[in-house]
Amino acid sequence: MRVEAPVRISLLAAALVALPLLAACGGGDDKPADVSQADVSKALRDGGLKDAALADCAAKIYVGQGISQAGLRVMIKNDAKSAAATDPESLGMSKEDAEKARAATSKIVTDCLKQQ
């Protein structure tokens, strides 16, 4: 099949117009926003923790423990499941994040619950 010159020019022009649009849609700048301490606190409250001060204290410890952004996203995405989970890795956290989450939970028991 032979394509005529005007058709080739039209196809080339359409490709040149579409390229920047496609690059903008699939660019690597679509990084999710960072999960903040406030996001974690809200997820804890939304998951059933009624005490806002306890949720804030726990969120501060989770974020301060150094759990990665990916790990924090898993936590806030699975807030209802997180409360019932005995192993954070079962929620999809990395082994390192799961260890940090377990350490944070222990610290929450000693630091946040004593304030109650």
What does this structure look like?
- It is a single chain.
- The protein has helices spanning 5-25, 37-46, 52-64, 69-77, 79-84, 95-111.
- The protein is built from 6 helices and no strands.
- It is mostly helical and 116 residues long.
- Helices cover 66% and strands 0% of the residues.
Which labels suit this protein?
mainly alpha
Brief summary of the model shown:
This protein has 116 residues and is mostly helical.
Morphology: globular
Residue share in β-strands: under 5%
Q: Give the % helix.
A: 55-70%
Structural class: mainly alpha
Q: How far is it from the N-terminal to the C-terminal residue, by CA?
A: 79 Å
Please report the number of helical segments. Answer: 6
What sequence of helices (H) and strands (E) makes up the elements? Answer: HHHHHH
Tell me, rounded to a whole number, the average pLDDT: 75
Tell me how many strands there are. 0
Unreliable runs, pLDDT <50, ≥5 residues? 5-27
What does the largest sheet look like?
none
Radius of gyration over all CA atoms, rounded: 23 Å
